[in-house]
Every structure is written in C-alpha cells, then in structure tokens.
Amino acid sequence: MGSSAGESSIDSFIIFLDENHCRNPHLLQTLEDASVRFESHLKHFEPGTEDTAWLPEVGRNGWCLLTTDKRIRKRPLEREAVRVHAIRMFYFSTNSVSGPEMGNALRKALPRMKQLFLQQPPPFTASINRSGDVALKDDF
User: How many domains does the chain have?
Assistant: First the structure.
C-alpha cells in the first residue's frame, strides 16, 4: 500500500467496484484480462449500504473507487468522506452506455488511471468518458 504521504506503487493499484458495478461481467472481464486486482462491494458490504458507511473502508485500504455515481462529488457528506479518507475516485461520466461499451472504456482508461494513481496524491476524483479518456476533476 502507498505511504501516508500519498506515494503509491503499482502493486497496490486495486479497484473497488461499487454495488452498481461489482456484478458487471464486462468490467470484471476487463479487469481480469488486464490483471488488475479488484474488490467487490458485495464481498465487504450488504446491498444498500450507505455510501458514507463504505467510503471510509475504501480509503483505509487505499483502493481506487470505480463508480458511475458522480453525485458523490457534490453531496456534502460523501464529498467530505472522499476528502477525509483520501480516496482516489474514478467515475464514468455517463450512465447511458452499455456493459460492453463500459468495459471498452475501462480498458482504454486503465493506463491513465494507473498513471494518476502513481502521480496524483489522494484524494482526487477523475472522470472516464465513453471513449475511455480520463480527466482529473477534483484534487482537493
């Protein structure tokens, strides 16, 4: 895992798939094909667990959050949890893509996600668009 100063090694690059994505076969296959380690929301939490309950665990473990819930950036309690728990949050900028499109966007985004993981101290949020481009949005 990275140091408290936000330094990281690629060996600690682990994606946490939120409840909405942890059963998406296209994302799971993309991560497996790329040999990226990941954790599933439902492996650690009950369905329907409030964001403010699981976000701290994501931060404590140094995992990178992958979600489509970009509202986390705007809701005060969730935004504060991202900041306080030094979360690296990647989110798909649109929900209106199919599973295969989402898998393809993630495949294209992974190199930039890894680069941000290594170079950008947490906390931060970054968007992933339909084409797989990654843009840093918040660096607190």
Answer: 1
Gap between the Cα atoms of 135 and 109, Å rounded: 10
- Mean pLDDT across the stretch 95-113? 93
Pairing of strands 64-67, 88-92: parallel
Domain extent for 117: 10-138
Residue 33 domain flag:
yes
- Using alpha carbons, select from 51, 67, 72, 52 the residue that is nearest to residue 16: 67
Instruction: Note the pTM of the prediction, 2 decimals.
Output: 0.90
